[in-house]
């Protein structure tokens, strides 16, 4: 029996639709009902695993999935021993610092001694270290944008796409910490048969993305 490459994608959320679309454009057909955890492909030796995006780096590091599609922001935050194979050109966003609109911004150094709320503590810690800033990181898992309004923090670091969430919460974007887009990640060492399947897949992804640009 030929081996199958196991591909982890987001179960539901902002990455889901385009991850499915990309794989389908690469000729991988599978059914993705709302309650499925995995699906077999009819047309390519692959199995699709549907997971929360936060769990994908761990599954790939453990080799439960051979490859996965995640946002670069999640890849960097999770600090797992996995390889970045390809940038995928969708789900583009940035991780930015924002402060209350009425406050004056005096550069990164003005964050010294402040409280920063974020769902990305590792990325923020690294940024503060590089900038030589001592600030207090307050980790929260959702609705980060409400933190300044309720007195939990003086600044936030969160994902920004159009900026409308910041605007409607009375915040302004003052600094970009990192840019992000969807990426394909893989296990560090792959079985040779799976490696060949991955190379086929990468070839198709490149062809699909070149045709678009
Ligand atoms: O359930 P699961 O854990 O799988 O999903 P999730 O809720 O953690 O993630 P999801 O689906 O919201 O986002 C998945 C990935 O999409 C992120 O990790 C980013 O790489 C990417 N992405 C792209 C975004 C956005 N754009 C985005 N706008 N992720 C989140 N947002 C949110 C942001 O948190 C903020 O609340 O949208 C709001 C800002 O958007 P604007 O347009 O108002 O600026
Ligand atoms: Zn998530």
UniProtKB/TrEMBL annotation:
As cofactor, the record names: Mg(2+)
Catalysed reactions, as listed in the record: 1-(5-phospho-beta-D-ribosyl)-ATP + diphosphate = 5-phospho-alpha-D-ribose 1-diphosphate + ATP
- What is the enzyme's class at the highest EC level? transferase
Pathway assignment reads:
Amino-acid biosynthesis; L-histidine biosynthesis; L-histidine from 5-phospho-alpha-D-ribose 1-diphosphate: step 1/9
Activity regulation description: Feedback inhibited by histidine.
According to its UniProt record, where is this protein mainly located? cytoplasm
Could you tell me what this protein does?
Answer: Catalyzes the condensation of ATP and 5-phosphoribose 1-diphosphate to form N'-(5'-phosphoribosyl)-ATP (PR-ATP). Has a crucial role in the pathway because the rate of histidine biosynthesis seems to be controlled primarily by regulation of HisG enzymatic activity.
UniProt lists the family membership as follows:
Belongs to the ATP phosphoribosyltransferase family. Long subfamily.
Q: What is this protein called?
A: ATP phosphoribosyltransferase
Organism in which the protein naturally occurs: Fulvivirga sediminis
- List the range of the whole protein covered here: 1 to 213 of 286
């Amino acid at each position: 029996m030929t081996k199958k490459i196991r591909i982890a994608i987001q179960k539901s959320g902002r990455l889901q639709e385009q991850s499915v679309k990309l794989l389908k454009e690469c000729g991988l057909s599978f059914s993705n009902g709302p309650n499925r955890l995995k699906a077999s492909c009819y047309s390519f030796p692959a199995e699709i695993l549907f997971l929360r995006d936060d769990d994908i780096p761990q599954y790939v590091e453990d080799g439960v999935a051979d490859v996965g599609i995640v946002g670069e922001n999640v890849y960097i935050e999770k600090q797992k021993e996995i390889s970045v194979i390809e940038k995928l050109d969708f789900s583009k966003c940035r991780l930015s610092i924002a402060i209350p609109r009425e406050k004056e911004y005096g550069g990164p150094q003005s964050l010294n001694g402040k409280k920063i709320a974020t769902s990305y503590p590792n990325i923020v810690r690294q940024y503060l270290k590089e900038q030589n800033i001592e600030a207090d990181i307050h980790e929260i898992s959702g609705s980060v944008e409400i933190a300044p309004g309720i007195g939990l923090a003086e600044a936030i670091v969160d994902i920004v796409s159009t900026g409308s969430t910041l605007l409607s919460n009375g915040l302004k974007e003052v600094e970009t910490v990192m840019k992000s887009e969807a990426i394909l990640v893989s296990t560090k060492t792959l079985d040779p048969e799976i490696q060949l399947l991955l190379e086929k897949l990468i070839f198709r992804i490149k062809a699909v993305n070149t045709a678009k640009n």
